[in-house]
Amino acid sequence: MPRIEARAPGERRQPSRERGSMSEAERRESAEQHDEDTLVVERRRRVLIVDDDPDFLVMAEAALAAHGFLVERAAGGLRGVFLATQDVPDVILCDLRMPGIDGFVVAEALRADPATQHVAIFACTGRRDLEARAALNASAFDGVLVKPVDWDSAARLLHEIIGARRPYGPT
Q1: Ranges of each domain in the chain
Q2: What are the tens digits of pLDDT across the range 114-140?
Q3: Which residues does residue 3 pair with via DSSP β-bridges, in sequence order?
Q4: 9: which of 66, 85, 160, 167 lies 20 to 30 Å off by Cα?
Q5: Is 51 within 8 Å of 60 (Cβ atoms)?
Q6: CA 58 – CA 61 distance, rounded (Å)
Q7: Any idea where the Response regulatory domain is (predicted)?
């Protein structure tokens, strides 16, 4: 009977530990049959984008989706914290200046929650001044993406960060 397995992109099938006392020939035959009967479903890497600019949200979603990410958008900091804690993403991109609660408060709230404290959080900002850099260095952010964002470079970075943080396997 066919089986479905979830694996991260590029992950290889691990040998089963349930083979008991099979002979070597039986193990080879079983492995070959397993490869033929298994439909591999690759788990897409999930990104939450938190920003109050609807144009940036649409552009960022399209750019990251083109690189294979599953993207969710949050229009504002409070919505971002809510969505992140309801369905924990692999990485969060968060604007710094938003009405209501800003990106620094969002990052601190997510770091304080055991469900999201491990998630990579990147600030997205157009600010390049030294004061902003000092604030970011002392913050709960893992890094910064400067607007306008080079989405090809950002996608490579996010794939690397997510791959280093998340163990792969069924979800």
Answers
A1: 3-42, 46-165
A2: 999 999 999 998 887 766 666 777 788
A3: 38
A4: 85
A5: yes
A6: 5
A7: 46-162
